[in-house]
Amino acid sequence: MKNIPTVAKQELEKLLTGNKNFIAGRPTAKNMCLKTLQNLALYQEPYACVLSCSDSRVVPEIIFDCGIGELFVVRVAGIAVGPNVKESIEYAVKKLHVPLLILLGHDDCGVMKYANEQYPNMPDNFQSILKSVYPVIDGVGKFDCNNKFAQKHTFWVEDYLMQNSDIIRNSVEKNKLYIAKCHFNHHSGEVILL
Ligand SMILES: [Zn+2]
User: Fold this and answer.
1) Distances in whole angstroms, Cα of residue 181 to Cα of each of 26, 30, 59, 105, 186
2) How many angstroms separate the alpha carbon of residue 83 from the centre of ligand 1?
3) What is the pTM of this model?
4) Which of 6, 69, 92, 171 allows an S-S link to 176, with CB 3.0 to 4.6 Å?
C-alpha cells in the first residue's frame, strides 16, 4: 500500500481487517442497533464510499464487517457507471468528505457474462449498463474469463470517474481522496486489491 494518503490508508486497512474478520467467521461490528441509528439521526460521517454490484452475494457492510453509518454505499448492477452513480459518489466526496472510494467488482458477475454473450450487439434492454461495459471489450476482444473481465472493468470505472468528474479528479489530485480498485472472491470471501 504505497503512495496512499495516510487517512485513506488507515480506513482501507480497517476495512481489509474487517474482511478478514468476515472470512474467519468472527465479525466484530457492533453498531447495528436502533440506538446507533438514533445517535446518527441528524448526521452521518461514513469513512468510505463503496461502489459495489447489486449482486445479492456482494454486501459491503457484511464482507467488510461494518455497521450503520460507516459506509456510504452505491450499488448498481456491474458497477456500471453513469450520471446518477457518478453524482452519488460525488456527494460522498464533496459533502461527506470521505477519504476513500472503493470500486468493488466481483466473481461471477451477471453483467460481465451478459456483455460477453451480447457483444457487439446492443439489445433493447440493459443498454445503459452495457454501454458502461462494452468499452472494456473494445480493442481487446471478448474475455475468456468473466472474473478477469470484471477486474479490467473496475479500472475502466476509475478512468471514467477521473475523466468525467471534476470533484473526484480534483480530490484525488489534492490527495484528499484515494480510489482503491478491489475484487471480491466468492470462494474465499476475500476482497483483494487490484
Ligand atoms: Zn455483479
Assistant:
1) 25, 27, 16, 8, 17
2) 19
3) 0.96
4) 171
